[in-house]
Amino acid sequence: MLRRCPFGVSSPSSGTSSRRTFETAVATWKQLGARSPRGSTTMPSVTINGVTVEVAEGTNVVQAAEAAGQEIPHYCYHPGLSVAGNCRMCLVEIKALSAKQANPLPKLQIACNTVVQDGMVVESDNPRVREARRAVLEFLLVNHPIDCPICDQAGECKLQEYYMDYGRHHSRVALGDKVHKGKAIAIGPDIMLDQERCILCTRCIRFLEEVSESHELTITERGDRNRLTLASGAWVDNPYAENIVDICPVGALTSKEFRFRARVWYLDTSESICTGCATGCNIEVHSRQGMIYRVKPRYCPEVNGYWMCDAGRAVYRDNAVPERLSSSLTREEGRFLEVDATTAAEFAARNLRAASKYAILASAACSLEEGLLLADIAARLGDAPLLLTSPETSDVPDDGKLVSSDRYPNRRGLTALGFRQAERIEPDVDGVIVVRSDPVADGVVEAERLESLDATVVIDDRTRTVTSYADEVLAVASHFEQDGTFVNRGGRAQPYRAAVAPPGSAVEGPAALAALLSALGGKHAGGREEIAERVRRWVDEQPEIDGTALPRPDAAAIDSAA
User: Fold this and answer.
1) pTM of the model
2) Interval 424-465: pLDDT, tens
3) Domains of the chain by range and CATH?
4) Is residue 61 classed as helix, strand or coil in its secondary structure?
5) DSSP at 75
C-alpha cells in the first residue's frame, strides 16, 4: 500500500520566474503522479462488501474500496499511471450498477476500469470472485519460476501475497515443461530484468511512456512466449529509471545496487526528505543496524507524487564516506585532539572571543532548526552576517519535472530566516563559524585568508578543505541521522526523521549549536521538542511558507498538561 503524506495544499510562491516554472512543473507532475479525481462537487455513494462510502465523481472501484477500508488485489493498476486492465486480478461482482439500474451485471468486471456510480453495489470477496482470482493466479503462475528463496522481491511481492490469499493451488504444469525466458538481463546501468518472473502487467512500460517519456521497454512475441524486453536500440538510462523497480509488483525488475544485499523484512523504515536538490521529494529511508540500504519515494501529491529521480536515491551513499567525522576536535600545539562536543563548544567560544568581527558561513543544506540557532549565535556576536556559500545553480538543469538546478534542500527556508548569498567575506572579518560548508571550495574565502584569522570554528559531519584550518571542529550528525525541517523551493516546510544514529560521539546539529550558543553566554536553547516548537511558531508567522506538513502537538495532551 502506498503511503500518503498528511500534507495540505501549498501556499502560493512569490513571483520569480524560476518559481513559476516550478509551479508549472508541479501542476504537470501532480497529473502524472497523483491521478485521483479532484474538484468535483458530486459525491456518488457506493457500497462495497456492505460498507457504504461517498467518493469523488470519477473514482474507480479500486480507489473507492480503499476509501472503504477494503483491499481489491491488483497487479497492473497503479494510481499514478493510465489504466491498462490486463492482469484481471481486480475482478469484482457488480450487484447493482447504480440507483437507477439495480440489476446485477452478468459478468465480473475489472475494478480498476469501472467508475463508481451513485447507488452502485459491489462485492469483491464472495466465492465467485475468489474463484476467478484463483484462476487468474494459476494463469500467471503457469510458467513462473520457483525463485522465491533467492528473489529480492520476497517480502514485498504481490504474487506471493495474493497466492497465499487466493491461490494455494497445485500447478498442473511440470517443472520441466515451463516456458523458459531470459534471466538476469542488464537493461540499464542500474536495473536488471528477469523475463521469467515478469507477469506482463506493463506498469514499467506505461511509466516510461507517460512519466519519463523515454520509451525504452516493450513487449514482444505472442502467447506464452510474450516477454518484456528493450525497444530496438534502447537502454533504460533516464533520470527516473529506477521508479520502474519500485512499481514492479513482482521480482522482474531489480536494482543492481540493492540486489542480494538485504531481506526487506529486516529493514527499518524512516520518513525523510531528499537532500539532492531544492524540490524536496518525500522519501522513505530503509536501514538496518545503522546502515542505510536504499531510498524510495514516499507518496506526496503536493511535491513528487509517487516518484523521485535516480540521483536523489544515491544521496544516502554520502552517509558512509571515509570523510565522516565521528568525534569533535580541538587544536593543540598544531594538532587535533579528540574532545566531546561540549568541551569543543567551550574552546570554540573562547577562541571566538579573541576575534572582533565575525561572519557565519553556512550551507543551504542546514535545517531550519540549525538556521534559527545560527541566527541566535549571530546576534550574540554583534549581528554577524549570515551567509550562504552554496552555489545557487549548478550544471544540472531544471527538467520541468522534479530535478532542480539548485542542489540544496533548504535555501528558501534559510533565506527567509535572513541568510543571504555570500560573495566574499568582509576584509576586516577575523572570526568565522563554518557550518556544513566548504567556503574554500565554493570560492568565498581563500585558504591563506583562513590561516590569518583569529578564530575558525567548523561544525560539520565530514572533513572538507576548510577543516584543516579550523581551531575547533564540532562533529555533528548528517541529515539521515537527525530530525529536522527543510523548506523546499515551492515554499513547503517539510519535516524529516532520523534513520540511523550518528557515528562515534557526533551529536545532532542543533545540539552542537545550542552548546556553542550557551558557551557564548546566550540563552539556553532547550531540547529537541522546544526547538521544534520554535520552528513551528516561526513557520506559522511566514506568509510565504506553508506549514501544514509540520507535526502539531496533540491538543488533548496540551490541555491535560495544563
Assistant:
1) 0.90
2) 999 999 999 999 999 999 999 999 999 999 999 999 999 999
3) 45-125 (3.10.20.740), 134-255 (3.30.70.20), 328-561 (3.40.50.740)
4) helix
5) S
